[in-house]
Write a structure and sequence with these properties.
With 268 residues, this protein is of the alpha/beta class. The chain is built from eleven helices and nine strands. The longest helix is centred in the middle third of the chain and has 20 residues.
Length: 268
Amino acid sequence: MKVITFFNHAGGVGKTSSVRDVGFTLAHLGHRVLLVDADPQANLTDWLGVRSVDRGDGPREITLDDTLYPAILADDGANLALPDPVRAHGLDLIPGHLDVATIEPLLPGQLMGVMRLKEALRPLADRYDFVLIDPPPSLGQLSALSVIAAQQVVVPVPASGKGLKGLKTAVQMLGRFRQANPDLTLALILVTQYNDTTNHSRESLAQLRAGFGHLAPISTPLTYRPALYPDSQLHGEPLPLYSSRSPATGEILTVTNQLLAALGVGHA
Ligand SMILES: Nc1ncnc2c1ncn2[C@@H]1O[C@H](COP(=O)(O)OP(=O)(O)OP(=O)(O)O)[C@@H](O)[C@H]1O
Ligand SMILES: [Mg+2]
């Protein structure tokens, strides 16, 4: 089981879209995939169309007990484990919830608290080939426990000046997280929101390759598609399912294969 966190403390860089679409593509290739929505915004959950859970007694609203929360904090301190995941589009998902945010102020009081997601995933090692974690855009506790849980990190970064600026800090922070998790590697820098009609985007991509290519493979870019991404979100479907014949689906398959190559994993 490989645990991969899509980390960038900058907001809106494509973390959630990538976790959803790369996760779906990995499952489509035959891998067993668990997604963890570690963001109180719960966009991943929403964009997979998961708006309720059904544990055999009919559909009901998602509560904090359905999220990663029980694995991180428990009132009695015992039984720290992930709940059963929900199923969506061939994927397993630990859904998100706004109140996952309460982990932020409570975790620092817990001994070894930031290790708890890693611990909670350990018993699932035989159940999944890949666990992809979607943290919030922050450098807080939820991001820390998400990155510390991983062996590999993918850093999504928009092909823009702003994207490049944030990437330096993201890479520095990975160095810090490595103190708690020495095996952590940067598997792939995933280029998102690329607009090949603008010089700005083309130049940013060239700078990315020149300035960061020695740190990790730089993916081929995911093109900026301002209609398709929101439409797929509204439908609650991964883009490759919502629009299987779109060139975007081909791009997502390409970057998924680049990630597999970076991880040293062949096709299923
Ligand atoms: N290739 C793309 N083309 C057009 N829009 C995109 C593309 N990728 C992502 N977006 C849009 O950009 C916004 C940010 O993407 P996303 O939510 O995946 O990033 P994020 O890093 O998870 O954001 P946050 O930091 O808020 O969690 C979303 O509205 C998404 O639809
Ligand atoms: Mg997100």
